[in-house]
Amino acid sequence: MKPVLLLFIFISLNIYAQEVPLTETELKAFTTRIETETKKLTSLTTDFEQQKHLAFLSNDIQSYGKMFLRADGALKWSYTEPNKYSVIFKNNAIYINDNGKKSTVSGDQDMFKKINHLIAGSVSGKLFNDNDFSIRYFKVDNEIKVKLIPDNKTLKKYLTEVHLYFPQNEALVSKVKLIEPSGDYTLILFKNKKLNVKIDPNIFKH
Amino acid sequence: MLKLIQIFLSISLLILTSCTHYKPIGEKVANEKSIYSSPYFNEIDGEFLFDAKMQVFGNDLNGILVIKTIDENKKRLALISDFGNTLLDFEFVNDEVNVIYIMDDLNKKLVIQMLENYFQLIIHPSFTIKKTYLAEEGKTYISKLQGKRIFLYVNKEDQLVYLKQSSIFRDKVGVYFYAKSTQIETIQFESFELPIKINLIKR
């Protein structure tokens, strides 16, 4: 066998070896921890870095911002760089502020609910009890990777897989990878997470 | 018979008045070259990112437009939402457009055709010159793309500043290019047939 081929097989095996399914005990411990912690969750604020990967581009497209989540489901996704742009998901509506220009979107309610649910659920870990996805759990280095495969027809049009990464012994997601049917993906990294801090009500005002 | 003459005269007048948009300002001169190469998006391996602000049938839409020049005949163009999901991904090879991906909501024959045509006008690499007109501000080259007449308005440095697509009856589309040297800064696209405007600002 050619050395190059051997090397390729070794690398491939190594990649797969890194992703180990959780044992039943590990899975129970992990889901119990997430469930306990998310029950206590009244609010979450975090910085985020968004990296859009397009196969034909040499560099990913980066955006930065802040995210605010309230226990009642209100969610604000606020981009600060390179542009100021925010979206509030609240009371079954989407409020957009595009650098001062405000608008409201009342579109497909089913789709709206799914987007809101996906974002809020990804961050808080509440997606695990969702009927819209088939879920598998893995250990990858020092993280737990939760692989969600949409079963829902609407979601399948937009996403083939969602990967949530949890650092060992933590209940909050540190990164989310949203993989599209084209193979392109968006990776969102969360930093400076703050749990259960009081969020100024003005944050959710439009 | 008199009625027939009246109808004929009315139609002739209509065609004459409706064709004023079809003739460029200036004096017709001999073509100095046979091809006009667009100064934009032709650098091989060049990658361009724009914030896209679109007004489509009264709705405001935002996104990011990505253009990559693969080689002299091939380009990729993708439109993504602010949240990151890909809305469309087209490949332009010479005069042909291939759909690599299109979001399900946009996957309608008429919409795809319209998007292909609009984006092709923005990134098309070169145009065959059929006629040249000389005016005070620069030149107008007349070419053809998508079976319709293309007016390329260039300044005294031969830099493309405005592209207009017209049929014999009316103007179809106008595209303004604002650049520093060959580095494009802003593109303003407007359809004269449909309520569609696209403003692209270099990111």
From TrEMBL, chain A:
Where in the sequence is the signal peptide annotated? 1-17
Matching InterPro entries, A to Z? LolA/LolB/LppX (IPR029046), OM_lipoprot_carrier_LolA-like (IPR004564)
Q: Which UniProt keywords apply?
A: Lipoprotein, Signal
Q: Which domain of life is it from?
A: Bacteria
Matching Pfam families: LolA (PF03548)
What Gene3D superfamilies does its record include?
Lipoprotein localisation LolA/LolB/LppX
Name by which UniProt lists this protein: Outer membrane lipoprotein carrier protein LolA
From TrEMBL, chain B:
Where does this protein come from, organism-wise? Brumimicrobium aurantiacum
Domain of life, source organism: Bacteria
Identification of the protein by name: DUF4292 domain-containing protein
